[in-house]
Structures are given as structure tokens and as C-alpha cells.
Amino acid sequence: MPRSSSFAPDFYRVVKAAVERAVALPENKNADGSINWNFVDSDCFMDINPTEQCTKLYYELWEEACDEIEMEIA
Fold first, then answer.
1. CA distances from 52 to 24, 55, 58, 63, 73 (A)
2. What is the pLDDT of residues 40-57, one digit of tens each?
3. Is this model's pTM higher than 0.85 or not?
């Protein structure tokens, strides 16, 4: 099954940039230094503010971006 980012590459770049910004914020880290993905999710959703029609696609792209970032920092 193709990744959602292949259907919406421009939107994916916007989502990934928002995730990268949110991951870099100290307040989005747990005490042990790990990422608090719930806080990242909240920041990204507020930053992008997807319309009701785009919410499903937004979360598919958000998951892809988070997976990619997790692989980069592992």
C-alpha cells in the first residue's frame, strides 16, 4: 500500500517540518529525555490546524513523519 506522503508530498513536508519543530522543544521532552509524543501531537495539530476534511490525511502524514524522525534519532 502506498504511503500517504506519496499522495500529498507538499502537505507531508509541512507536517514533517511541524513535527521537527515540536520535537526540538524542551517542553516536549520527558524527564528522561525521551519525546512526549502527546505534546508533539498537540503542538503540531495547533500549528497546522487541519480542516475537518483533512484530519484523516493529516494524521496519516503525522504518523509517517514521526516514524521517520524516530528512525533518524535512533
1. 27, 5, 10, 18, 32
2. 999 999 999 999 999 999
3. yes
